[in-house]
Amino acid sequence: MSWINDPVNSPKYYTDSHPGMECIELTADTTFCLGNCCKYLWRYHSKGRPLEDLEKARWYLCYVIDHDEKIAWTRQQHAVLDTLANDPAIPDAEAHTWAKLRQGFPYSALACLDRLIEHERNQQ
Fold it and tell me: At residue 104, what are phi and psi to the nearest 5 degrees?
């Protein structure tokens, strides 16, 4: 797959966020709401509306929690989540959110996401 900006097949806000990976590698085998949570968290710093994307990620994660959706990852998804959770270039609250999602702890992921949202609000 090409990493050149292709707004249909490979948008920059998905490829620039975490170079060498595409969001679909993480979201393809998830539930709709968990996938959307990951999508908005993945791209929040690349699309120009970080707080809005983080709040959307939170909304979808709350849906996952409220509907007791199972969080199960494939081996490939674990590898992507491990990379995200351990990337020193990623803010701590974001890395912790990825780590808690990987562990299947949505309430802990929500607490980390709330810290990330608060951090982003303070940046504005």
Answer: 80, 30
CB 21 within 8 A of CB 42: no
Element (H, E) at 28: none
Residue 53 — left, alpha, or beta (φ > 0 → left; ψ -120 to 50 → alpha)?
A: alpha
> For residue 120, is pLDDT > 90?
yes
Contact yes or no for 13/46 (Cβ under 8 A): yes
- Alpha-carbon distance of 74 to 64, in angstroms, equals 18
Task: Quote the mean pLDDT of the chain.
Answer: 89
* The two structure tokens encoding residue 112: 């980390």
Whose structure tokens read 């990976």? 21
Query: Which string of DSSP letters, residue by residue, matches 102-122?
Result: HHT-HHHHHHHHHHHHHHHHH
Among 124, 116, 82, 123, smallest CA distance to 102 is for 82
